[in-house]
Amino acid sequence: MQKSSHLRKLVFIALLTAQGIVLGLLEQAIPFPFAFAPGAKLGLANIVTLISLYTLSFKEVVFVIVMKTLLTTVLGGTFSTFLYSGMGALVSFIGMYLVKQLGEKRVSMIGVSATGGILHNVGQLMVASWMAKSWTVLLYLPAMSIVGIFAGIAVGVAANYALAHIKVLQYFSKK
């Protein structure tokens, strides 16, 4: 029975990782129409990060994020894509993890996601300012924060909906 449970968890982690990769690659193919926030994206792959955050252990979430970032870069990115995505994912994850620790009564999944949306942009702008050797890149932060909040809300709503259905699937799979 324990083997079956462990195998189920590994399959779940693999599926989340694969879904994150597919969403990441799909999003790379979609141009973002807002010139005031260059490089801004909706962050669809963060749906997977949120679901992982609410269903897996800390180590397992880190594994999903690292694999998703690495494989998305290998399949459709460059080294600079890896730097931007990696730093954005790292800063975003740390912030979402800490905010989630406040508890569901204080902050919803949508609030956790909005935090992640803002902090993902902060991480990416840190890389951009390092690469440009200038802090003036951070002037994009207000515009990108607005985009990050709205994107985070949209991603949070989608992840909340998906998580409810994942729980239903897990419930029926035990019978």
TrEMBL record:
Keywords annotated in UniProt: Membrane, Transmembrane, Transmembrane helix
Superkingdom of origin organism: Bacteria
Transmembrane intervals: 82-99, 111-132, 138-164
Pfam family for this entry, one: Hpre_diP_synt_I
Name listed for the protein in its UniProt record: Heptaprenyl diphosphate synthase component I
UniProt organism field: Granulicatella adiacens ATCC 49175
